[in-house]
Specification:
The protein is 59% helix and 2% strand. It has seven helices and two strands; from the N terminus they run H-H-H-E-H-H-E-H-H. Helix 1 packs antiparallel against helix 2 and helix 2 runs antiparallel to helix 3.
Length: 178
């Protein structure tokens, strides 16, 4: 494949929380055939359409040569992507119960322990260690929902206009020049 080929990615894609973006670039085109037939036919079509729009949007975002017509197409793809994300949340996500991964559960338990330690440190009453509650928290998995209310999702519609004005994000740096 050379330098621009798809790199090997982990067996459990869900564990790729802090992987570099190039790993996600490799997963995105490979995941479409892997998802085939996993859901009900109507949901399967929504997911496949969304994954295809993600691939198309990503290819436009990475394009280094942009014309007025390609930016117009990029804007149309962005609208389809955001519509697809909302459709996915509204019709597919509500049908399936999802829970946090073991890694997310461990992070939540650590966060709760730190929060409890800060609370007990600020109070003058000594409180026993949080081991029993930590054990309960580890056994309990928290139900999660797909969240569209993040900055990344909010910023997607601005990318085509910014690409037309400033170029692709790999063409400049936001570092302060001294």
């Amino acid at each position: 494949f050379g330098r621009s080929g798809i790199r090997r990615f982990p067996d459990k894609v869900v564990d790729m929380k802090s992987s570099p973006a190039r790993d996600y670039e490799g997963v995105l085109p490979c995941i479409i055939p892997c998802m085939e037939g996993l859901l009900e036919p109507a949901d399967d079509k929504i997911v496949h359409d969304l994954l295809f729009e993600c691939c198309t949007w990503h290819s436009h975002a990475k394009s280094r040569l942009n014309s007025d017509s390609s930016l117009h197409h990029f804007d149309a793809v962005t609208r389809r992507l955001t519509d697809g994300l909302r459709l996915f949340q509204k019709s597919v996500c509500r049908k399936y119960e999802t829970t946090e991964t073991p890694k997310e559960a461990a992070a939540r338990v650590r966060s709760e322990a730190r929060r409890a330690a800060r609370t007990t440190a600020s109070s003058s009453v000594p409180v026993p260690t949080a081991a029993p509650s930590t054990q309960k928290a580890r056994k309990k998995t928290v139900k999660t929902e797909y969240n569209l209310d993040t900055y990344k999702i909010h910023a997607i519609p601005d990318v085509p206009a910014c690409t037309g004005e400033f170029g692709t994000t790999n063409g400049y740096s936001t570092m302060a020049v001294s």
